[in-house]
Amino acid sequence: MPASTFSMIDIIILQSQSGLPSGILVLTPVILLAATGLILLLIDTIFTEVSSDSLLAGVSAIGSLLAFGITGWFLISGLGQPQTGGAITLYGDALVVDGLSLFFILIFTIVTTMVAVASYDYISAQQYKAEFYSLILFAATGMALMSMSNSLATAFVSLELASLPSYALVSFLKDDQSSIEAGLKYLLIGALSSAVFVFGISLVYAATGSLLLSDIAKSVAETELIGVLGIGILMIAGGFAFKTASVPFHFWAPEAYEGAPAPISAFLSSASKAAGFAVAFRVFVEAFPLGSLPVGVDWVLAFQVLAVATMTLGNFAAATQETVKRMLAYSSIGHAGYALIGLAALSAGGPNGDVLGASMAHLFVYGFMNTGAFLFIALVEHWGVGRTFEDYNGLVTRAPIAVVAMTVFLFSLAGLPPFGGFVSKYALFYSAIESGFWWLAAVGAVNSALSLFYYSRVIRAMWIESPTQDLSALDSRPIGLYAAVLFAGVGTLILLPAFGPVVETAQTVAAALF
What is the Cα–Cα distance from 116 to 112, expressed in whole angstroms? Predict the structure, then answer.
């Protein structure tokens, strides 16, 4: 690695540790996301009577893409990793910058970029566009802080920062009753889950006397309030299960994803889900380490039950849906079950870094293929084609490039070679087997086979069935939507040969947690 790179990283580390810029440099990606959101509101204030759609979309995409680039540079350079001195803690250890947080910020920022570009066409007829883009950037800021949270208090505040803009984004289509209804349901259920989460935090604090993850880890083995601690951990797990749309806290997801603007469905099902896993991985691995918990407190068993139930229910429910968007909503629930293997297959002394890293790598690939699938639905909604499987009949005759991209997304989601989803699922299931949890891998493989049934319904409709309606609207080529869909498609394909470095990086940064 070039000496100049190391010197810059050394400067950042020394400044953050000395408190000179109060950690501004290591928080550059987060600050960029928040600043971009504020700049969008400023642009809207200045250009009050001039159409600035392309400017708003461009600033949003450039800001999030710049945050992605800086985060990638930090990660490659080893910032916050063992080779450069280890994790960097800030503000009384409330925030931590390490490989795990940087890896997840890559997911948030690239998904935000694709959603911002796609929204240029999707919301072209809507009002309050600046508010729409700024809410996306503020939500992404909260997600980035979630991945950096080193305290239960910070985790809760950052989770709310990510959630509150999401409630407004889901109900953004004011003339669509389903959007308003979805936003209201999401808000009410989200408020309930937040109450459960914060009550669980209070119980853990009562049992351990601290909110910092490292201090909690030191206290859990000595606490006398075992029952209080166990209930607190269970309630915290419930809060994370809501954020990741895991069974039995999944029932908000199909309603919210179906009623929300399709780019927001992509944003929530990819970036927001990854944010939930980012904070869950850190909290449970660092605050409640395996081997030091009192007898009777077994969160791994709880996540094993959640993983199996989420995979199975999500895939079986997806197979019974009649609309493509709702099918993908339940599919995203099933994929939450796959990612839960990262926590469900942990054991004392096992290859925990490998299995947790494989789950992180799968979430990275999922960020491309799932976002792309929902953005294709956004493209179809923009054309006004319809929502059912039959409405997709014959789309290849008028939009072959977009249909090829959607086929790549669906085959990748199903885990078929030669697409990115195949290698990410293979790495995840193989790591579970290595950890001795072959039955989790078997359940995942069976559910992946089942998913091919409902994904193939969309593929058959687009490629084989004859059109049942006039598809002349497909002659239009919305630039933003097409660009975002094609970018996601290329990313899904490139991740097949590039998956080696991705999973190696993920497993390396995950191993540093143990």
Answer: 6
CA atoms within 13 A on the CB side of 188: 8
Whole-number Å distance between alpha carbons of 268 and 190 = 13
Answer whether 0.90 is exceeded by the pTM.
Answer: yes
User: 3-class DSSP state for residue 97?
Assistant: strand
Domain that holds residue 307: 298-514
Average pLDDT in the chain: 90
By the 8 A CB rule, do 448 and 381 touch? no
Q: pLDDT tens digit string along 447-490?
A: 999 999 999 999 999 999 888 887 887 778 899 999 999 999 99
Q: Distance (Å, rounded) from C-alpha 75 to C-alpha 79?
A: 6
SS3 79: coil
Spacing of C-alpha 435 from chain mean position: 25
CA distance 406 to 372: 7
| Residue 208 or 290, more confident | 208
Quick check: is 109 in a domain? no
Question: DSSP code of 128?
Answer: -
Whether the Cβ atoms of residue 314 and residue 148 lie closer than 8 Å to each other: no
In a 3-state reduction of DSSP, which class is residue 215? helix
Q: Which residues contact 444 (CB under 8 A, 6 or more apart)?
A: 311, 337, 338, 341, 425, 428, 429, 432
> For the chain, what is the domain count?
1
DSSP 400-432: HHHHHHHHHHHHHHHT-TTSHHHHHHHHHHHHH
Other Cβ atoms less than 10 A from the Cβ of 194: the count is: 18
Question: How many angstroms separate the CA atoms of 102 and 389, rounded?
Answer: 39
Within-domain flag for 511? yes
Q: First CA to last CA across the chain, in angstroms?
A: 26
Q: Give the position of tokens 């919305």.
A: 478
pLDDT digits (tens, 9 = 90+) for 296-319: 778 999 999 999 999 999 999 999
Q: How many CA atoms lie within 13 A of 381 on its CB side?
A: 24
Is 15 contained in some domain?
Answer: no
Other beta carbons less than 10 A from residue 86's beta carbon: 13
Q: Where are the beta strands (DSSP E) in 2-151?
A: 88-90, 95-97
428 within a domain of the structure (yes/no) = yes
